[in-house]
Write a structure and sequence with these properties.
Number of strands: 7
Structural class: alpha/beta
Distance between the termini: 26 Å
Radius of gyration: 16 Å
Strand content: 25-35%
Number of helices: 8
Helix content: 40-55%
Shape: globular
Length: about 170
Amino acid sequence: MRKTVLIPTDFTVKSLNLVKSALNANENCQLEIIILHGLYLPDSITEMLFFRKKEAIRKLENPAFEKSCQLLLSKYGSRIESLGVDLFSGYNRGAFENYLEGNRVDEIYAFSDHDFKPCHKRSFDLMPLIEKTSVHLTKVKWVDHGRRHDLDRNQLAALFFGHFSPS
């Protein structure tokens, strides 16, 4: 069986733990995973002319996030059909529903104790849109067993030592 799963991200390693949670919950499925970030398009015509989605994603990603994606692919590669990062630039629920339908998203995974931290001046929180969609939303509670400063120092380790509990 094959499923498409959407994971909202702020380009932190913590957000990639939702990928692990989705894989654990769908053990008999091949997953197409879309890691999605909300980013408004630039306002000026000049910036719009030179806006490239791939370039914007490359600027938002950080080395720890990229390494964590590679780590997930190497550990769960046989169960991950694809793992892609995308940007959503719509302004309303209708645009978001169209995005979900166009990408055939079956399920969305998000943290129940959501705390959005914008990583760019045009970043926006996807959760208000996600909570109003018709697509099944699975909320995951993140339980950190390490001290906070340890998590900040080594987020890669947090990817595999964190713990989830049903919300």
